[in-house]
Description:
By secondary structure, the chain is mainly beta. It has six domains: about 15-150, endopeptidase fold (from Nostoc punctiforme) (Alpha-Beta Complex), CATH 3.90.1720; about 160-290, Sandwich (Immunoglobulin-like), CATH 2.60.40; about 295-405, Sandwich (Jelly Rolls), CATH 2.60.120.380; about 410-520, Jelly Rolls (Sandwich), CATH 2.60.120; about 525-635, Jelly Rolls, CATH 2.60.120.380; about 640-749, Jelly Rolls, CATH 2.60.120. The strands form 13 sheets. Strands 2-3-4-5-6-7 form a six-stranded antiparallel barrel. Strands 11, 12, 16, 17 and 18 form a five-stranded antiparallel beta sheet that branches.
Amino acid sequence: MKKAIILLFLSICCASYSNVQASCTQDAYGGQCVAYVRNYFGGSYSSMPGLCYVGDRTCSAYNAWGNWDLGYGSGTVPYNNSIMVMDHANGQPHGHVNVIVSVNNNQLFVRESNWDFDEKIDCNVSYTFYPETSEVSRNSGSRRYPVLGFIYGEEPIVYSAQFHSQDEYPSSVVPGNVYEWWIEFQNTGTETWYKNGNNPVRLGCGTYSNNDQYYNIAHDTWTDNYRPALMSQNSVAPGEVARFSFSFRVPENAQPGESQNFNFTPVAENICWMRNRDGSHINAYMRYIAESNQCRVEPVVLNESISSYWGNTCTSSNRSGSYAKYYSFSLSSSTDVKIDLESSTDTYLFLLQGNGVSGSEIQHNDDSGGTRNSCLELSLSSGTYTIEATTYSSRATGNFTLSLSSQDDAIIEPVAMNQSQNSSWSANIASTHRSGCYARYYSFTLSSSTSVRIDLESSTDTYLYLLQGNNTSGRVIQSNDDSGGTRNSCIETDLSSGTYIIESTTYSDMTTGNFTISLRNNITEVVEPISMNESINNSWSGDTVSTHRSGKYARYYTFTLNSSASVSIYLVSSTDPYLYLLQGNGADGSIIDSDDDSAGNRNSLIERNLSAGTYTIEATTYASGASGSFTVSLINNSSSIESIAINQSKNGSWSSDCESTHRSGRYARYYSFTLNSSRSVRIDLESDTDTYLYLINGNGTEGDVIDSNDDFAGSYNSRIERNLSSGTYTIEATTFSSGATGGFTLTLQ
């Protein structure tokens, strides 16, 4: 019964239902738009009551919104097979309804009737949807029409995905060995994916129609036998890309050659297996090419551990009837080494001279330390050696772990709080925790509980570990591969007093390259708002550290532009300041620009032309640990605000030197006036161009909108009439259409 309920839920979430017309004849008789849409969906008067009666404006097409129901709800996002309900404005006195046949991003392909009041059908009309204002334009026209919403004729697919990229198919894999692989999917739905929570998005074995498949490559790091991986990111918004990385074990009995295809699909747990946005199945899979492991000699490096399995494909050269695995390593100088072989099976260990299964024996061991595990500790000169990992009993099988370590201590360097260090990976120090990888180690001590952030950045794909204690074999507290959608690594955690080790290593084995490791107090940066043409006084102290200048203090300020603008940012202080402009709302945004002394007297200045969006200012210092007071100022260079008096008219014109704050892509002019007492005002904006008028609180372009108007008294002119209290106000005179120019007259009475 439980399975039946789950299957029913999945069908509701992801399946599409349609009972509509398949064909369309251009210019055929369709009748009024309401009648056409009702006939298209075969609606009854109970679900789709008639709305258009001649002479009765209250029963117009726009009344479909709130009165029609196709059984799948309604909303503000367009989907295939839905009804678009347009409001009564801009040449549509009764509104309009039509049928959305398909959606491609914000392009809507529509069937409709009676658009030109001729009761004829148009079969393939293209509308552009503007979600920020809920408007559409028709057939690339400039006029926009307001949309009340969309009535859905089938269940919207809110969870959908599209294959993005994947790791190379593993080749020359050895049966019994473990390998890592990744795959990426783009979120093409309307819901954000989350790594945790009630409905986490995970990688599933199978496809939408053939799901929860058991694969014989499952590894014990999987969530279960049907879920190889969680997302690498904590959340993935619509349009972003999620990565799933996982380990898999090649079956011991894998035959040489190409394996089957192992299909993988993102799953919104407890909701549905995902499909492409068009409803088709996602075709994404992995396969490998296996080699026969007949006594293959595999490489092993110092401070590496390898997990494998004894099977019947390779017999021991030194113990008759026993199965074996062989591993070779090379030393560039004399080294004290330790070789450990651990298993629930009784083990036996050989060290051989040279690279091959038939080298002369140097030393062997059966039982070590009172256990049935084996261990060899010896000093070796430079050269190549082979390890034979085998069993005491003949024909014994089972899992084992082989470890090769240097008895020479790894170099552990100190790193201080709010410090960055540059270094590089090389073969002289091996990773303790990632087999075959190189590493560097750093130690720090905390005298009290502290929230810390550790960043590892490199052009090489990085991997980061935080260890307990003051040695490289301490307990792993936390690890990270990819952070923030990059291949860099980051760990953020709260630590008690004590000593800790950072292991800086790589994702791929035997990889070299340069890197930067940074340790800092993870104090939450307070980001304060700053308005256009505002100055803020503040001071630096140790409660907030700079994200971009190690050891410096900082303050952060955010602002949002509704349209493109030219801005100046000043940072003035008797302390030598340093200024950053960052993308987005937060201290970790990418750097757009920075400045030290451009404003003179060691003060900072950034002047930039910026597009619409949100930005963050980091006000920091040139010197480490510097404190003191400062003033940060944000100036809008784009808009000039003229004054206008009561009973005065002003002539002006629109051009590209000043853009509208409230209507994207439009040009504007701004006028301010002050009232000493409460009174009624009337503002008229007249032009041969279709106008738009805003009344804004305060003296500036970014104030709150008190009122707005498009068309007044059946004309393209605009008028606002309001009772206002004493104070200062700003008028924005702009246009209905984007890019429109021309002259105008503004009158204030």
